[in-house]
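Title: Prediction job returns without error message
Component: structure pipeline
Severity: low
Priority: P3
Assignee: unassigned

Description:
Job completed but the reporter wants confirmation the result is attached to the right record. Sequence as submitted:
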Amino acid sequence: MSFRNKITLLLSTLLLTGGVGMAQTAEPSQSEEILSVMIFAMITLSLVALVLAFTVFVMVRQWRTAEAKEGVEDQASKPSSWQRFWLAINDLKPVEKEKDIDMGHDYDGIRELDNNLPPWWKWGFYISIVWAFGYMIYYHASSAGWSSEKEYNTEMAIAAEEKAAYLAQAADLVDENSVELLTDGAALIGGKKTYQTLCAVCHGAEGQGGTGPNMTDAYWIHGGSIKDVFSTIKYGVTEKGMISWEEQLTPREMHEVASYILSLQGTNPPNPKEPQGELYESEAAPADTTDGVAMR
């Protein structure tokens, strides 16, 4: 097979590959984004290979044409095949032919020559233009490419999932030294459920007190801060009949029920038990009734 036929076969194969790839990406599916990116990459590489193959073809043809013009004159003085190829891809002029491209500007022995840009550089520039058009169409005009906004939204969604997973794990790492007051409805609802199940029997369904002290007034026996209440729940007060809940409740559950207890401050339920302990300025949030949970 002749050199020209080989080049023609190569170009036809690359064109066919690019055409098939374009057909496959005509209607990209959102569920196959990774596949569409791979197909686009294949098309782009095919186009780049096509341009490079055409460039090599043109340069080799120019090289052979120049070789044919030179004939067989003075074979000993002719440069090697590699040298001639290097001159062709860089469009360099031999030193003895520099007078043909001398622009007549001379400064301190330095002459200005009218050299052309190297063909490899020009074709690299052409390839970048083709790439830019393909990039713009794929990433900015079509819905298949990953735009900066889409990438940002995806990364933010992943970050939100990772944050949620971390907070879920961190919730069980809280102790009486790091605990902080919770005020969101979901946490207080969880705290209310725990309170109604375990605490209401002694402290009353509405925190009004019973066997245990009143939870709705401003007087506390063992301190009224979130850290004090958490610590009391965790370690108990065995001499007063309150057991330690450390083995039965997770840190998250103790955190939620302690915050719920503080949310009962100032709710004024009926038949409250008389104040016990010392007056404490509550740190609970203002009262609210979101989702049926009294918050303060």
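Comment from assignee: result matches the submitted record. The longest helix spans residues 33-70.
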